[in-house]
Amino acid sequence: MRISDSNWFEVEEYLKNDDRCVLPLGSTEQHAHLSLSVDSILSDKMAADAAEPLGVPVFPAVPYGLTPYFMGFPGTVSLRLQTYAALVRDILDSLYDTGFRRILIVNGHGGNSPVQPVCAEWMQDRMGARCRFHDWWRAPKTWAAVQDVDPIASHASWMENFPWTRLDGRPVPPEQKPYVDFDRLRDRNAAGVRDLIGDGNYGGHYQKPDADMHRIWGIAVEETRAQLAGDWT
């Protein structure tokens, strides 16, 4: 039940029997040869696929997040931490004020993790509110499935290359890229990060067979759905 496919009458009727919803968080940032919207595409689809059989509303994915280290790549958009924290808090407040009490955040971008304390503060301030912050790609079963395919997996590598994140007519390199030196990334500004990672892939093959990707996706959907359907008491 996507909010974009619903009207307010339907949401009001839903809230008479359930108070759950899903909020996807994404980002607009470089992903090497893949779409700049990879994180938003994946969090949006993951949320929708997980919630669909439960009939739980899914709000539009927030397309911008925290990614200052990729500002050397044109097309990347990064919010300040205080801006993003305020944005997430405003969204949660709006959901609460209109009747939602149990909110699953499906996060598609690791850089967004610093706003998790906002969720904790929000629950403290709002009576009866519950919020779960779910990094879908690194949930235990999903990450195990990724490792089973290839332990060399990273940002903008094969593990983010799904049929729905590829760009038509833009093939990816056939080779495996060596891992970048992560220790050298920690003290670099955006220009320095670009110098170190080149095309944007942190290391690993650029693509794997679709059968592997669909299997990983199915596991991730089930794991995400369990977060939504599980015990909230």
Gist of the model:
One of its GO terms (molecular function) is metal ion binding. It comes from Sulfitobacter undariae. The protein has eight helices and five strands, in the order H-E-H-H-E-H-E-H-E-H-H-E-H.
Please provide a written account of the structure:
With 233 residues, this protein is mainly α. The protein has a single domain (3-229), classed as Creatininase (Rossmann fold), CATH 3.40.50.10310. 39% of the residues lie in helices and 9% in strands. The chain is built from eight helices and five strands. A three-stranded parallel β-sheet has the order 1-2-3, sandwiched between helices. β2 (102-107), α4 (116-125) and β3 (130-135) form a beta-alpha-beta unit. α2 (38-51) packs across α8 (210-229) and α5 (140-149) runs antiparallel to α8 (210-229). The mean pLDDT is 96.
Helix content class: 25-40%
The helix/strand series, from N terminus to C terminus, equals HEHHEHEHEHHEH
Could you tell me the mean pLDDT? 96
Distance linking N and C termini? 24 Å
Say how many strands there are.
Answer: 5
Q: How many H/I helical runs?
A: 8
So what's the CATH class? Alpha Beta
- Shape category: globular
CATH homologous group name: Creatininase
Low-confidence regions = none
Strand order of the largest sheet: 1-2-3
Please describe the biggest sheet, giving its number of strands, its sense, and whether it closes into a barrel: 3 strands, parallel
* Tally of individual domains: 1
Pfam families: Creatininase
Cofactor: Zn(2+)
Enzyme class: hydrolase
EC number: 3.5.2.10
What are the key terms here?
single chain, 233 residues, mainly alpha, Rossmann fold, 3-stranded parallel β-sheet, globular, creatininase activity, Creatinine amidohydrolase, hydrolase, Creatininase/forma_Hydrolase
